[in-house]
Each structure stands twice: as C-alpha cells, then as structure tokens.
Amino acid sequence: MEEKKSIARAIERLTGGTQRRRGRCWAYGLAALLSVVTFVLFWCTNAFRDAILWNLELRNGSRSFLLWQRPPVGLQSNIYVFNYTNVREFESGIARKLKVQEVGPFVYRESLSRTNVHLHENRTVTYQEKRSFQWISGLSERQNVVVPNVLLMSALAYSRDLNYLLQIGFTMMVTGLKLRANPFLELPVGEYFWGYEDELFEMAKRFPPLKQSLPYDKFGILAFRNGLNADRITMYTGTDDLGSIQRINGHESYRIWGDEKCDRIYGTDGSMFPPNLIQQQPNATIYVNAKEFCRQLPFRYERRSFSNGIPTLRYKLPSNVFTSTSNKDSCFCPKESYDSVTRICPPAGTFNISACKFGTPLIVSFPHFYSGDESLFQKIEGLTPQQDRHESYVDLHTHLGFTVATRMRFQLNLEVRKAVGMPFSGNLEDGSILPLIWVDMVFDDLPESIRQTLYLSHYLVNAVEAGLQWCSLIGVVVSFGALLAALRNQEESNNATKPTTTDRRTVELDRL
Ligand SMILES: *[C@@H]1O[C@H](CO)[C@@H](O)[C@H](O)[C@H]1NC(C)=O
Ligand SMILES: *[C@@H]1O[C@H](CO)[C@@H](O)[C@H](O)[C@H]1NC(C)=O
Ligand SMILES: *[C@@H]1O[C@H](CO)[C@@H](O)[C@H](O)[C@H]1NC(C)=O
Ligand SMILES: *[C@@H]1O[C@H](CO)[C@@H](O)[C@H](O)[C@H]1NC(C)=O
Ligand SMILES: *[C@@H]1O[C@H](CO)[C@@H](O)[C@H](O)[C@H]1NC(C)=O
Ligand SMILES: *[C@@H]1O[C@H](CO)[C@@H](O)[C@H](O)[C@H]1NC(C)=O
User: Fold this and answer.
1) Which of 203, 257, 275, 285 lies in disulfide reach of 401, CB 3.0 to 4.6 Å?
2) pLDDT confidence band for 456 (50 / 70 / 90)
C-alpha cells in the first residue's frame, strides 16, 4: 500500500507537470507571436526609419530644433568680381567692346542663425534669418577693381519713367552735388560688396518711399544679404512636409509678377527637403525657394551619387531655368506697359529680378552667361562659360532628405537703362547687360568631425537596422522552434498521462 501511495503521488506530480508544461507552451506561443510582430515591424514596415524621421521633426527642445536654429556648418561663398579693364578706351570710343576680367575668388564663411523663432500648434514655425559673412581666404578685400556704378544706373532706371522736367532737375542735382557720376567706379572689393559711402545713396535714403524699403544704411552689392533679414518666414515642421515654406511675411504669394502661378510661394530653403517625399519619389523634381529672386528654382533628379562618404541623390538646376519665353515661364517677363497683356522676355539665360528688387535693374544668370543667348556676348569680351564650373546642384541624403553637399552658382548683372534726358551713361548702350559678380556657394567639404558623424550615423543606422532585422528573424526561428518543441513535449506527456493508461496501471498495481 505504501508503494501504491507513493506511485499515486508520482502520478499527481506528473499531472501537475502537465499543467506547468501547458503554461510554458503559452509563454512560448506569446514569445513566437511577439517575434512575428517585431519581424513584420522591421522587415515589412518603415517603423525604424520612421522613428529616426520622428527625431528630425522640429519640436521645442529637440536636438534637431537646436541644430536648425544654429547650423554648426556654414556655407562657404567664393565670390568672383568682373573687373572692367578697358573703360578708358571704351569711353573714348577707341574700344567698341567692354573687356572684363574675372578676379577672385574672395572666400567668405557665411554663418546663419534663425531668430525670433515661434513654434505654432499646427506644426509650423515662423522665424527670421540672420547671416554674417567673414572673409577667410582667397584674394584680399583691399584689391581695387573697376566696376559699373550700380547706384547711378539704378537712379537712371528709376528716372526713365519720370517726366522730362523732373529728369532735368535730377540731372542738375546730381551735377551740382559733384557726385560720383561716372558710369564706372574704381573702389576696393570689400566696399563694393558690403557698402561704400555714396552721396547719391545718402540722398535717396531721405526720399520717403525708399526710406522704409531700404534695409541697409550703406549701399553695397551684397549688403542686402548681411545681417538680420526682415522677412518673416513660416515653414512646416512635420516629416511629411519638413522644411517646406508656407508663407513669407504672412503671404502665400510674392505679389511681384502679377500672376498666380509665378507668385506662389513653395519649396524649401535648400538645406533640407521633406524626407518622405525623397524616400517615396526620389526621381521627382524638388523645389528651392529662392527668396532673393522672388521665385522657386526646380532641381531635377539626375543620378545616384556619393558625397562625404555616404550615398546621396543628386539634383541639378536645369540649364534653361533662367530662360523665359512666351511658352515657358512667360509670367516672369515684365509686361510691355502697365495695362498691356503682351510680355517682353529678356534674352535666353537671363532672369530679370528688377521687380523683386524695388526696381533696381538687376538680372540673374548662370556664371559667365553659361547657357545664355549669343547676344549677351556681343558687347562684352572675356567671358568663358563652362558647364562643370558654372552649373548648380544639391546632393541629398537618400533617406533623411537633408543636404549633404551643394554647389549653387549665380551671376548678378546690371541692365543699362538709359534715360533720354540724362547724360551719365556714357557710351553704354541701352539694354546692355553688364556682369557684376558671380557667387559660388559651396557646402561639400565638411569638417572632418562632422563628416565622420555623418558617415557613422549613416552606416550605423543601416547596420542597426539590418541588425534588428536579422535579430528579429532569429527571434522568429528560435521562438517557433521552442514552441514546437514545447507542443510536442506536451503531447508526449499527454500520452504518458492518459487516464486510460493510468487506470490500467492502477489496476495492475492493485493486482500486485
Ligand atoms: C582691375 O582693372 C584695373 C584697370 O585695368 C587695374 O588697375 C586693377 O589692378 C585690376 N584689379 C585687379 C584686382 O586685378
Ligand atoms: C519652448 O518651451 C519653453 C518652455 O515651455 C518656452 O519658454 C519657449 O518659448 C518655447 N520655445 C519656442 C520656440 O516656442
Ligand atoms: C498655423 O498657425 C499660425 C498661427 O496660429 C497661423 O498663422 C497659420 O495660418 C496656421 N497654418 C495653417 C496651415 O493652418
Ligand atoms: C520615377 O521612376 C519610376 C520607376 O522607377 C517611374 O515609373 C516614374 O515615372 C518616374 N517618375 C519621374 C517623375 O521620372
Ligand atoms: C526688367 O524688368 C523691368 C521692370 O520689371 C523692366 O522695366 C525691364 O525692361 C526689364 N528688363 C529686361 C531686359 O527685360
Ligand atoms: C501519442 O499517442 C497516439 C495514440 O494514442 C500516438 O498515435 C502518437 O504517436 C503518440 N505521440 C507521441 C509523441 O508519442
């Protein structure tokens, strides 16, 4: 009987064991389920990438928000000046063509900060840009150059539409003030860029309509880029449309070109692009909002590339971007007269920003009139357009959509607009387009520390993602193996503890 009892206890233990086993099965089942969920998450969805993208969103206090307000790397601007070398011969009529010589580069480091930042509830942020330029290398700013007198030419362009009497008055005033009334000036490059004393400008500043619109106190050809920019920019901060500019000064339109399509504000500031767009449609055209030209610039997908040690996507500015014709971008061309429908477009390869710059007769093009019309070269000697030196592109991170490298190259030109009743423009022909400077904005030689971080983060993210994917695969295999083993185990023990069997055994024991 003793024996019988202990065997019964053993049987009891055995059945208790079955319950424990069943519990284990549940645990393995749960683990298998979890591993399937993580597997699906890492292999079939973008959960991991989305988590990284989520970190890119600009939120109060986040790291990306701080980096965005004060970008740690500045753009480098290589600036080239066109020095007019035969002005005396040209003015005296000996030379029929003006001769220019490219002088440079003058290399500046541009630091950008975004100030007066206000985050809104609806995933937008409003801010202003503040830039400063520091000369770092290249030719000295003290070099003297001979350049067109932009202020005088602007004054002529303004007074072209005044009546004859006012023009005479203006002429007398300019002559009386003994201003620098030559069509060309000789001055140091630094002053030409960032501002020089000019009585004409001092006079203009006191002129009420100009008083508010002039953002600087000394006139320089790049002075408008230096310092706090008055424009308040509103931009989206979520990953769907990260970086897209929604409004400038509260308006969704530039209200410059008198046309809805050309006036619409969209695109980003060029430092980042919506990552979801880049991931889903890498070959779509992306847009940069070029506030200084009052328009957007399309960048077309070109190819996969490699910069700063990581794979990138290259987007290029089409070579005909500055060409407006009656069937392409005609809304950028000025109307023939105020109430007319016909528009007159500038020569191919030039973009008229006069309307965008308070009527200053400025024209934008590629450097050396690259891809520009033949007529542009007829009055100027010394220009040598070259595709690889004079085109613009951005290289974007393939997943995150931020700019890893870029080269933006533009040339600023002056249009000669003579006023009939006024001297001062010498032998210059009405409508000539005179090159002033060209700027090569570079962001491709990152400092070593940042390059390494970028390299690491790219490969680390990929490695971690791959690691997680393979781990989840192993997890699935292991947990399913365990589950199967547990199930088989349970089935076996079920066979061993089947009531019939136990009954039979008890009977046998009884018989003993
Ligand atoms: C620009 O041209 C003028 C006139 O030819 C010359 O005197 C001057 O040295 C030139 N400047 C530079 C920086 O080459
Ligand atoms: C961020 O939050 C802090 C504290 O809530 C607030 O003082 C600050 O103004 C916020 N910053 C922005 C840009 O909204
Ligand atoms: C977001 O909020 C700001 C401030 O409240 C407002 O000016 C802006 O129009 C809003 N934007 C959208 C898209 O609703
Ligand atoms: C982008 O590529 C896809 C196929 O890879 C193609 O179907 C689509 O038309 C392309 N889109 C553009 C804008 O080129
Ligand atoms: C540039 O635009 C201004 C005004 O918008 C116009 O008066 C001028 O004729 C234009 N110049 C060219 C070359 O189209
Ligand atoms: C369990 O018992 C059934 C018959 O009762 C048998 O077919 C099966 O193979 C047994 N399973 C194991 C794992 O021994």
Assistant:
1) 275
2) low
